[in-house]
Every structure is written in C-alpha cells, then in structure tokens.
Write a structure and sequence with these properties.
The structure holds two protein chains of two kinds.
Chain A: H1 7-23, H2 25-63, H3 68-117, H4 120-125, H5 128-135, H6 137-143, H7 149-169, H8 171-218, H9 220-225, H10 229-281, H11 287-300, H12 306-328, E1 349-358, E2 363-373, E3 378-382, H13 389-396, E4 404-409, E5 412-413, H14 421-425, E6 426-429, H15 440-445, H16 452-461, H17 465-469, H18 488-500, E7 506-510, H19 518-530, E8 536-540, H20 544-548, E9 552-557, E10 560-565, H21 567-573, H22 575-581, H23 583-603
Parallel strand pairs in A: 3-8, 3-9, 6-7, 7-8
Antiparallel strand pairs in A: 1-2, 1-4, 4-5, 9-10
Chain B: H1 11-20, H2 29-41, H3 45-57, H4 65-114, H5 117-120, H6 125-132, H7 134-167, H8 169-216, H9 218-223, H10 227-279, H11 285-327, E1 349-357, E2 363-372, E3 377-382, H12 388-395, E4 403-408, E5 411-412, H13 418-424, E6 425-428, H14 439-443, H15 452-461, H16 465-469, H17 488-501, E7 506-510, H18 518-531, E8 536-540, H19 545-549, E9 552-557, E10 560-565, H20 567-572, H21 576-589
Parallel strand pairs in B: 3-8, 3-9, 6-7, 7-8
Antiparallel strand pairs in B: 1-2, 1-4, 4-5, 9-10
Classes of the chains: A alpha/beta, B alpha/beta.
Transmembrane segments (chain B): 29-50, 70-89, 148-167, 173-189, 251-275, 287-305
Protein name (chain B): ABC transporter ATP-binding protein
GO molecular function (chain B): ATP binding
Chain lengths: 604, 590
C-alpha cells in the first residue's frame, strides 16, 4: 500500500480532489472564496495593527497627543478587518464541511446502489466486512482531504498576499519571510512523509485489534467451554502491544515535529526584531512596520500547517477512493433481457445441462444437471450435505447464473427475462433466514404494495398468524436486530410468508422449515397444496414427511442428478437415497436387533 | 438490557478510578508535568522579546542594537529550550498513555471472557468490542491531544494573564472583561455540539446497519426483487446522517468566528484604553504592543475549548464504558486456588433440587433432581422452551443455579477450578462457531498441543475421512470468517471434531448435529457411541434417533423432568415422551 506522499500519490490524490471539485462546483467556489477572504484579511489584520501602531500608539506615546479621529479610525479598522475575517472563517468551515458530507453521501449512495445492482456471485467473492468498510471508512478516507482543502487554498492566497505585502513594506524583512515560510512548508512535507507510513500502520493495527476482539467475543461460548481464555488473552495482548508500540512510534515523530514547527515562526519573529532594529536604525522602516511584520509571522505560523493536513490525508484518500472505484467499476453485473413471465398459473421449470463452479471455476459443484418440473407438481430435491442442492436452488431464481447450460421457466431462459421479472414469478425461501430491522409487515411485504389482508393470508398459510397476532403490536412489531427476538422456527415462517405474499408461480423451499415443529410443518405443506392459488414447488428437505408429499424425487449426489422417480421407486433402486432417508429407521432396527440378541444371550 | 451499568461515579471520580487501574500512568508523571510547564512558559517569549526590543532597544533616539541582539539571542535560546522540553514531554506522554491504555484494553478483554454467558449476552457483541477498542481509543486521543490541550491552554492563559498584570493591571482587566462573556457561553456551545455529535453517532449507526442489511441480506433482496425498497431505506439513512453532520458543522462554524470577533474587540479596546493610559504615562508603548501579541494566546484556547471539552466528555464516557465492564462482577467465577481439581476418569453428576430463572424473568427450571452415573449415555429431550438448554448450561457451569446445587464426583460444581472443569467437561453448542483459519487450526483449538496425526486420527475415528477428502485443501482448507466458507452442517462437523480431540471425560452435545444430513448424523452417532465408551455423554436432541441409543432419557416439560428411563421403557408408557416420539417418527419415517 502506498502510504508515502510520492509524486504519483500526489498526482492521483489531486485527481481525486478534482472529482470532488467538479461534482460540487458551487459549494467549493463558496468555500474557496470564503477562505480567500479569510487569507487576505489575516494579512490585513497585521497591517491594521501596524497602522494603528504608527498612527495611534506611537504618536500618543512619543508626541503625547492623539486625535479622536485617528483613534476611531484605528479601532474601526481593527474591528472591520476582523469582522470580514470572521465571516471568511465561518464560510470556510461551513462550506468545507458541507462539501465533504455531500461527497460522502454521494459516494455512499453510488456504492450501495452498486451493491444492489451487482450479482450475488460478486457478493460471494467479497467478504461482508470489506463491503461494509467500502461504504463507511473508505468513503470517509476518500473525502477526508476536503475538510482542510479550502483552508489550504486560503493559506496559499494568504501567503501570496503576505509576500506581496512584505515586499511592498520592506524587501529586507520580506527575505526573512521567504526563508522561514518555505522552511516551514518543506519541514511539513518531510513530517507528513515520515508520519504517514507509521500512522497507516497504527490504523491497520487498530483494525486488527478490533478484528481479534470481534472474533474472540463472537466465539466467547467456544472459548469458555474449551477453557481457552488464557490463550485468547495472549493473542489479544500481543496485538494490543503491537498497537501500543506503533502508537508510540507515531508519537515520537509527532512529538519531534510539532515543537519544531512551532519554534520556527517564533525564531522568525526574533529574526524580524533583530533585522528590523537594524533597518530602523538606518531609517528604512518605522516601528509600525516592525510590529506589523512580527505580528504577521505570529498569525501565519498556524494556518500554514493546513497545507500539510491536505497532504497528510492524500495517501489514505487515494487508497479509499480506489477501493470505492473498484466497487463502482465492478463488471459482471447481470445482463437482463426483455422477456417477461406473464400469467398466474403454475409455471413449468426446466433445467438443461447445467454446470456451476465456485471461485473462478476451481471448485465445481454442479455437473450436467437436467430436470423438468411440470406445472403444479411438487418435486423434492434430496442429497447429502454438500451435494450442491442449495446452489442449484439459487440458479432457479437467478441469484447465480450457471457456468454452462440453462434454467428455463415456461420455456424462457431466465437470462432473457427483464430486470425484476424473475422475482415476480419465482420465489425462493432460503435455508438461512434473514430478517430486516423492520416491522413484521415490512419484513413480509419488502416494499410490495399489499393490503394487510393479503399479509395476514400469507402468514396464515405459513402457520405464522397465531404467534404474530400474539406479538405486542402484531404486524407493527419490530423484529430483526433491534426488535423482538423470535425463535428459529418463527423466523422461518415469516420468511415463508414473505415468499407466499408474492403469489409465486414457482416456489423453491430450501430446507426452509427445518426449525419448524414437524406437526406445524405438515400443516404448512398441506396448506400449500390446498391453497387457492397453486404453485409449482421444488422442496429441498431431509425429513421423510416432507419428501413424501412430493410427486417426484430428484436425487443429487456430488453435484449430479443420479436418479429421479417416485419416492418408492428410488427407495427400491437408489442405494444412496435409501441410505439417506432410511438412516434413522435402520439405526433403530439395528438397535432393536442388537437388543433382541442381547436379551437372547441373557435368557440363554 | 445491558448488564454493564457499572458504579455511578462523577466524571472526575471516573477518571481518577480509571487512572488508578493503570499504575503505568503515574510513572514519571511529575517530570512530564514539569516539562509541560517549561513548554508552556515558552509561549510568552515573543511578547517579552517585542516589549524589550521596543521599550529598551528602540526607545532612545538611536536604536541600541547590541541590546536587541542580546535579547534576541537569549530569547532564541529559550525557544530552542522550550521546543526541546516539548519534545521530551511528548515522547514521555505517548509512552505512558499508550502503555497504560494497552493494559486497560487487555484487562477489559480478559474480563469480558471471565463474565458469565448471561452477562456477555446482555449486550450486542459489536458494542462489547467497542468497549475495548473505540472507547479506549477515545481516551487515548483525549490524553494525547485534548487533555494536553487543556493543560497547555490553562497554562497559557495563566502565564499570559500574569504577564499582563505585570505590564498593566488595567489592560489585563480590559482583556478579561472581553473574554469572560465568551468563556461563559462556550460551555453552552459545547453542550449543543455534544448533542449534535451524539446524533451523528446515532445516525451513523443507523446508516451502517442499513448498509449491512443490504450486504448481508443480498440474497433475500434479489430473490424477492426488493431492490427499490432497500435503495429507499439506504438513501433515507444516508441523508439523515448527512443532515446530522451538517448540523455539527453549523455549530463549529459559529464558535470559531465568534472567538475571532471577541479577539478583535479586545484588540480595539486595548488600543482605545491603552492610548488613554499611555497618555497618562501609566504604560510604555512596548508593553502595549506586547499586549497585542498576548491576545493571540487567548484566541487558540477559546477556539479549541468546545472541541476539547467535547473530547473530554467522550473520554469520560469511554472510561465509564470500560469501567462498566471491569466493575461488572464475574458472577460465575473461577474458585481459583481455593478450588478443587477433579481426578481423571469417568464423571458422575448429580442435580439436587435445582431451580433456575433468568434475572427478572420467570423460573425456567423447577426442582430438578437427577443423577448421571459414570459412563452412562443420557439423552435430554423435550419441546422448545422446556428447559433442555438451561439444563445443559448449568451442567457445564455456564450459569449457576438459583436454588439447589449441582455436584460433580461429589464436589459442588462451584468449587471446581475452571482449569480442571473446562478440560473434563466439554460442550458442543448447536452453532459451531469457527475462527478464521485452517481446518486443522480449528480442530486443534480444543487441544493446542495436538499433532497433525492426532487430528487425522480424530477425524478417522469420527468417520469423517470421506468428507475431508472432498475439501479443496485437506486439513489446510480455510474455513473463512466465522467458518462461513463451510456449510452449516460442515461447521457442526468441525465443532464436534474439536470437542472430541479435546478428550473430555464428559461430552455434552447440544443439538450438535442438527444441520447434518441423516446418514452422516447416524454415522457420527455410531462413531461417538464407540468413542464415548468409557466416558459420560449427554446429548440434547431434536431428532429422537439419539434418544433410542441412550442408556437413559430425561424428558423435560415446562422446566421439570417429567419422565426418565430407557427409550424402550418410556415408549411403553403414555406420556410426553410417547407423544414426542410419535410426532418425530411420523415426520422422519412416514
């Protein structure tokens, strides 16, 4: 990672800033104008003080007389200049902040839109944590230089004005300025170059410490039950100490450069006093000029660091921006066709020679899968753990596209269907239930404009109406992360209602009732059969009762369809299937046989 | 509700208590403060130099260049000296604060693990994590910047004021008269700002959870075509966050210029009043000019004040949160040296009239008495909410009973040292949490000293070699964050192997194979039957095939053991078990 302020980073960083400036042209202009006002008025404030010294203070002290006119003029001058400066400061800070926040919001919108647009396969390739930080810390890093940017522009204006003012006032004293201020600027650059790699490392370690804590606390139960607290603490301590050392290293550089950067302008003021006294002796300048220049140095000392702040943020900004760009430029977005899947009758599903592999094709999970499901039929998809059932189910709703082969609904290849068309006809209830931080109604409707009666009807079909009506605010009860905690079976039933309320013509249940009590599950499945609107159903299950409801069984093993037919047929001829579905029975039988033998032995 | 309320303390008491926990902080504190004093006094060098130059060096008809040179040189030396002191102070400050905060972090981390499961679960994990990360960082930022600023700013105000009174008490009063009203209103601004920051934090939290939903719920959103609704929710959260941020900016953008204006008023007043006093001969011109420079020392403390006070508040809150952890007693505590070690060998357990209720909740276990004899295999069955899992948590001492007691080999469970207890009794929970790493690392988690051969042997004994061969990189297969590269069933296999390798004398399975396919489950059950021969085994089961294999079945119903005995015997009696079994058998075998 590039954490040093190199020329390349500078160039790219300025490019990033350019993007923001073009996007928020008017706000940026307002911020820069305010900041320029602030810059010019800072120089003017020193000049006003010099004027007041020459025209008000010195005459009063040396000649002992002062006119009310000059006194009022001096006072008004100081006040007026400061008022304008204050105006500049206010505008600069406000507009700089607004610009930064607007850019953050803009990037966040773009990134999250892209998350919604990109196919699920892309999501699978990117860890959740990374996607979250793309939308949070990367966005913050990318636009962090925008906060000090207008100030930096203002400082440039300030320096140019100061240089001109100095040269006009006294070229010799100006020379001191031309020595001191470039020295501060260069030192600042060196400072940021030294600091950046260290700060980046500390930031990285902070993330790692947090990761360890996250993982360790998430696995707290395992840590406790296996008595591994000491080892976990040692693991955390090691990283926490690395972070401590990295922070101390940062502190050493900061601790060195901050005092030096503060001492430089002070030494400049002292040099001005010395040289100024010599110029005063030769009659080249008056006392007012001396005060003006010395005061100017005091005023400039702090703002000049703003140039360094922008530079300091650039490397992080470039990295953050490039990460955002990677998301925004991600290709492989799903192409959609123009076909639709009209009608309300049960759909026909056909899978042709379908193959699929995870991770750039290295880990094939499905091979030449072909099957048809006629409208209104129920097919059970059965196979051992890891045989590819869930992946196959995902291709039916086009969550992923097959590597080769095709999925057709009513004869239309799903890839030909227009955006949003597939989810209008096909619904999948996945193995792992996900509830949004929303009400029951919101979780079932998911934005679909449906009446409460329809939601209740779907809940009834999912056998969820009973417990939902018993919730404190029924449909309006918050569920999900910050809401009422529901049991696994209850969550599954809400997820099922979510699919049913859409009146799918093809319904895919991926082990979707595994946590539901057997009796309730049976009621759900019978309900589906007798519902007013019948769907074609593909059900993935282990339970015999579920399988028994199917018209046909497809047996999947190691990613291939190895047999299909009725439950009885498969039971008779497919060994793998038999082993799987009769496992409990055989175990029971064996045990009984053993027990019988044992009894015989005892009685013998 | 979070159990981490901690002890009520004032802000100052919180800080004092926080510091007392980390003795490193006191190391060399006096020296650091002395250096800070010197560094602060350095701030008045310029005004003094200006005053001396004008009043003495340039006072005569011709400037006294030698005097100016001497003054400037002495002042330059003083500047270098103060810079050096500032450097030394910074280095010491960073070292001391970072060391003490690292200690605080580690103590907090360890204490979280020492807390009972119940206490741990009373707060979201993310919030628990931030107590040992972000909250500590907040303290460190404050100590290294804000806290230092407070000391320097107060010192700066003090030395500037002292010098002002030395030069002219009248003008010193004028300056204070100008700044005092500002000092009075600044805390009000700070309160607004801190309220605004709180809102930003809340809105940012909302926004992050909206983003997280869009990412974690990616499959659901696509499956049901609810992209538009999600986009709407995201936009609303992003906008609300932006609006909250802009609000803070408006407050900050008011405070800064306000200070500038007050400083300008002070300058103007100095000129006005200074000239009047000067005419009366009460002040020299150099002193008056020095005042103009001294004013600048008042400006930065005022401009920083709101931010610094805000940071101080955050730091106190951070301290409160980490102290909240440390103050929470580890209610299920290790008896430590006073405890007993269990001898090796099969374990017997006895529940004596055990009752349990969650804090503030209704009782979930009533008068449970049961004996588990050594080498026996027990199945625990019952409907959801009947008390099975509570029973398991009490048996493994994840929680302590509210009434009655549990003994292991005759010792009260509360008297058994954790080092012994956790090795002898191991539970496999339903959700087999895995750590990001390889398969081998995860299996060895229960016994770090295990060799590769031992790991392979364990997998072979459990009949999992076929499964292992199907994995892309054998034992070196990476399981991903929280084991998410594996399926739910596969994660359970790893968790089981992990507990098996730990070689406990009592193995407790809490629906540990619920996501595994029936054939594999039966294979595992058979393997465990062989492997647990000679050990005590307790299984909490959803599928009743496990109960068939057990020596004895405990049937739970509404917090009581209502039936117990071998499967065949229970089946012959009408009751809860017969009903459960009938329902299960019809669904599994129909």
């Amino acid at each position: 990672m590039s954490s040093k302020v190199t020329t390349a980073v500078m160039r790219r960083g300025l490019g990033v800033l350019g993007v923001a400036v073009r996007a928020e042209r008017s706000i940026f202009t307002a911020a820069v104008l305010s900041s320029a006002l602030y810059g010019v008025m800072t120089v003017a404030a020193a000049w006003a003080l010099g004027w007041a010294t020459d025209h008000v203070v010195l005459p009063a002290f040396r000649q002992g007389d002062i006119t009310t006119g000059t006194l009022v003029a001096g006072t008004l001058l100081i006040l007026g200049v400061s008022l304008l400066k204050a105006l500049g400061v206010a505008g600069r800070r406000y507009f700089a902040g607004v610009m930064q926040y607007r850019m953050q919001a803009r990037s966040r919108r773009d990134v999250t839109r892209q998350y919604l647009r990109l196919p699920l396969a892309w999501h699978h390739r990117h860890p959740t944590g990374q996607l979250l930080s793309n939308a949070s810390s990367d966005v913050e890093a990318a636009w962090a230089p925008l906060a000090p940017l207008p100030m930096a522009v203002g400082v440039v204006v300030m320096l140019v004005t100061a240089a001109v003012a100095l040269v006009i006032t006294d070229p010799v004293l100006a020379l001191v300025g031309f020595l001191v201020f470039p020295a501060i600027a260069v030192l600042n650059l060196v400072y940021q170059r030294r600091l950046n790699p260290l700060a980046t490392r500390a930031q990285q370690l902070r993330a790692e410490v947090s990761e360890i804590a996250h993982e360790s606390f998430d696995g707290a139960l395992v840590v406790k039950t296996l008595g591994r607290e000491d080892e976990e603490t040692a693991r955390f301590t090691a990283k926490a100490h690395e972070l401590r050392d990295a922070n101390i290293a940062v502190g050493r550089v900061r601790g060195l450069f901050d005092p030096v950067l503060e001492a430089l302008p002070t030494l400049g003021v002292l040099a001005v006093l010395m040289i100024g006294a010599m110029r005063l002796e030769s009659g080249a300048i008056g006392s007012g000029v001396l005060v003006q220049v010395a005061y100017l140095f005091t005023l400039l000392a702090f703002p000049i660091r703003a140039l360094g702040w922008v530079l300091a943020e650039l490397p992080r900004s470039v990295v953050g921006y490039e990460r955002i760009r990677a998301v925004l430029d991600a290709s492989g977005s799903m192409e959609h066709g123009t076909a639709d899947l009209p009608g309300t009758d049960p759909a026909r599903l056909e899978v042709r020679e379908l193959a699929y592999a995870y991770g750039d094709g290295d880990f094939p999970v499905l091979h030449e899968v072909s099957l048809e499901v006629e409208p209104g039929r129920t097919v059970a998809l059965v196979g051992p753990t890891g045989s590819g059932k869930s992946t196959l189910a995902q291709t039916f709703v086009r969550l992923v596209d097959p590597a080769s082969g095709a999925v057709l609904v009513d004869g239309t290849d799903l890839r030909e269907v227009a955006r949003g068309g597939v989810s209008g006809a096909v619904a999948l209830v996945p193995q792992q239930t996900f509830l949004f931080d929303d009400t029951v109604r919101g979780n079932v409707a998911l934005g679909l404009p449906v009446a409460d009666e329809e939601i209740w009807a779907a809940l009834r079909l999912a056998q969820a109406d009973g417990f939902v009506s018993a919730l404190p605010s029924a449909l309006d009860t918050m569920v999900g992360e910050r809401g009422t905690t529901l049991s696994g079976g209850q969550r599954q039933r809400i997820a099922l209602a979510r699919a049913l309320v859409r009146r799918p013509r093809l319904l895919i249940l991926d082990d979707a009732t595994s946590s539901v009590d057997p009796q309730v599950e049976a009621r759900i499945l019978y309900g589906l059969r007798d519902a007013a609107q019948v769907s074609t159903v593909v059900v993935i299950a282990y339970r015999m009762a579920t399988i028994a409801l199917a018209d046909e069984v497809v047996y999947l093993d190691h990613g291939r369809v190895t047999d299909r037919g009725s439950h009885e047929e498969l039971l008779a001829r497919c060994e793998g299937y038999r082993n799987l579905v009769t496992a409990y029975e055989r175990q029971g039988a064996e045990r009984e046989a053993l027990a019988a033998e044992h009894e015989e032995e005892v009685s013998a | 509700m979070s159990a981490f309320q901690g002890i009520e303390r004032s802000g100052l008491a919180t800080v004092r208590h926080g510091l007392s926990l980390t003795p490193e902080f006191r190391r060399g504190l006096a020296g650091t403060l002395a250096l800070a004093v010197v560094a602060t006094v350095g701030k008045i060098i310029v005004p003094i130099a200006v005053q001396q130059t004008i009043d003495t060096g340039l006072a005569g008809p011709t400037p006294d260049l030698a005097y100016v040179r001497t003054t400037v040189l002495i002042c330059a030396a003083a500047v270098v000296l103060t810079a050096l002191c500032a450097y030394l102070m910074n280095v010491r400050l960073y070292r001391v604060t970072e060391s003490s905060l690292a200690t605080l972090r580690v103590r907090g981390f360890r204490h979280v693990h020492d807390l009972s499961v119940l206490t741990q679960n009373s707060e979201r994990r993310g919030a628990l994590v931030s107590r040992v990360t972000g909250d500590v960082d907040q303290i460190s930022t404050f100590m290294q910047w804000g806290g230092l600023m407070i000391i320097i700013a107060l010192g700066q105000l003090l030395v500037a004021t002292v010098l002002m009174f030395v030069y002219s008490w009248q003008l010193a009063l004028v300056v204070w008269a100008c700044f005092l009203p500002l000092m009075v209103v600044l805390p009000r601004f700070q309160r607004w700002l801190s309220g605004a920051y709180t809102r930003v934090r809340e809105r940012t939290g909302d926004m992050l959870s909206a983003v997280s939903e869009a990412v974690v719920g990616a499959a659901v959103i696509r499956a049901h075509g609810s992209e538009a609704r999600t986009a709407e929710r995201l936009d609303a959260a992003i906008e609300a966050n932006k609006a909250a941020q802009a609000r803070t900016q408006r407050i900050v953008a008011t405070v800064f210029p306000l200070t500038e204006i007050v400083a300008a008023v002070a300058l103007a007043a100095l000129v006005l009043v200074g000239v009047r006093i000067g005419l009366a001969g009460d002040i020299s011109e150099g002193r008056l000019v020095a005042f103009l420079f001294l004013i600048t020392l008042f400006v930065s403390p005022m401009q920083m004040a709101t931010e610094v006070l805000n940071e101080a508040q955050n730091a106190v809150a951070g301290w409160r949160r980490i102290l909240g952890v440390l103050d929470t007693p580890a209610d299920v505590a290790d008896p430590g040296d006073d405890g007993v070690d269990l001898p090796r060998g099969p374990i017997s357990v006895s529940f004596e009239d055990v009752g349990f209720s969650y804090p503030g909740g209704v009782p979930v276990l009533h008068g449970v008495s049961a004996d588990i004899t050594p080498r026996s295999r027990i199945a625990v069955v019952g409907e959801t909410g009947s008390g099975k899992t509570t029973f398991a948590k009490l048996l493994t001492r994840l929680m302590d009973p509210v009434s009655g007691r549990i003994t292991v080999d005759g010792h009260d469970l509360r008297d058994v040292r954790f080092s012994s207890l956790r090795r002898r009794i191991v539970m496999v929970p339903q959700d087999g949490f895995l750590f990001d790493g390889t398969l081998a690392e995860n299996i060895a988690f229960g016994r770090p000293s295990a060799t590769e051969t031992e790991i392979r042997l364990a997998l072979t004994e459990l009949g999992l070699t076929d499964w292992l061969e199907g994995l892309p990189a054998d034992l070196e297969t990476r399981v991903g964050q929280r084991g998410e590269s594996l399926s739910a069933g596969e994660r359970q296999l790893v968790a089981l192997a992990r507990a098996y390798l730990a070689d406990p004398d009592l193995l407790l399975l809490d629906e540990a194979t619920s996501a595994v396919d029936p054939a594999t489950e039966v294979r595992l059950a058979r393997a465990l039957e062989g492997a647990t021969r000679g050990r005590t085994a307790v299984s909490i089961a959803h599928r009743l095939s496990t109960a068939e294999a057990a020596d004895e079945v405990f049937v739970f119903d509404r917090g009581r053991i209502v039936q117990r005995g071998p499967h065949a015997e229970l089946l012959r009696q009408p009751g809860v078990y017969a009903d459960l079994y009938a329902s299960w058998a019809s669904s599994a075998r129909s």
